[in-house]
Amino acid sequence: MRTAATHDTPGAPAGLVADSSRPGGPNGDRTTAPRRQAQASSGGPARSTLILAIICISYFMVILDNSIVFTGLPQIRSDMGFSETGLSWITNAYVLVFGGLLLLGARAGDLFGHRKVFLCSLVVFSLASLLVGAAQSAWWLIAARALQGVGAAVLAPSALSLLTRSFAEGKARNRAMAAYSAVAGLGAAFGLVVGGLVADLISWRAGFFLNVPIGIVMMVLAVRFLPETERRGGRFDVAGALLATLGSTVLVLGIVDAADHGWTAPATLLPLVAGAVLLALFVGVERRAAQPIVPLRLFASRERSGAYVTRMLYMGAMMGFFFFTAQFVQSVYGWTPLQAGLAFLPMTLVNFVFAVRVPRLLERFGRPRVLAAGVVLTAVGMAWLSRLDLHTPYLTGVALPMVIIGAGQGLALAPMTSSGVDGVAPEDAGAGSGLVNTVHQIGSALALSILTAVAATVSTGHAAADIAARSGTALTGSAVLLALAVVAVLTLIVPARASRK
Question: Whole-prediction pTM value?
Fold first, then answer.
């Protein structure tokens, strides 16, 4: 059996190879495009559904882990003595390594086959999850979170590459991308519920231990059913990967230090300047590299460039939303971690309802309208939620805005992802998928650092009032980021799609 052949661009074969786990030849036995397509079509919808399930569940585990920690933050701060700004490094250590190494992880898939590196990433991620759950000190926890980021950096682009190569552009890929994007939205929200449940009943550590058996099951299924992709010759752009990771990390360090030292202090300015220099060097290296981890030709498409900008702003805003809202409902309302997780159910349920309808909406209204509507709705909901204060009622001040945010996210993520990968040449499939995930993670880390630094300047002298005021300030910043995302959609993506008609 074979999966459905895909085309990253119209008429271009995806480059699947024979699957060694099935009859028909070992990996590396390359077939012609017509034969590959004939083999692929024999797999049928059942196998395609199974492939999609394996990819989505594995990606769900990564996204779940990125949000499961939020409802446990008050417990973690109490157990390990984190400061307010230091607490953000539990998230930033993960997303920075995740984002910085994504491009190298995507390149690894191109060189060694996406299924092989997908399996390796599941091993690393599951082991790191075990170490996070067993952490006995702050440095151990942050280091284990960084190791999780390494596993996620390989898993995410491989998952997206396997998806785009298994489903052809059009209805099939729209539906697969809708499922993949629904996982991103639901995983983030569901992680809060799971994190709250286990933190309340057992410990914040238990949520990370759950990844181990899930990871093992996914490894077994991946070996059995996932197709291998064609390996491409070449080498790693190690210099580019290191400059991207170091540049973004140092930049975030400078932003975080601004909360303690001020924006004009040398401790802030030096890392900010160093980060900017390293990222400028990264661009220079990519221009000269024979096989860059970020082929600059990916930015030649106005639609893709707009999708990268929009995703960076959008996911940065959503990271601030989860980080501060989870703390608000626990510190201001005095809710347990489980109650805090359940507080996000209005968003989760509405997100799911809209996400599953996206394929039909795309066929009826087109990608630009659906994407623009999703980002606008999210911005409206975030602006409403940003009015938080010490006396804000849950129903009208938190739950109803979450309903709007959930509807917006359900509509926005699938078309945003599709705009970021459509039209990418087969030889750039890994890099293209990696770049989509990179701007997602780097945007999250940068935005969370900025929002945390700005929020830390607010002080009322009372613990609960401080949390309320800081949350309102940070969410106002998230609303501003979403407003900028709306501008990016309307000025870059919408005109680009219109010109293709």
Answer: 0.70
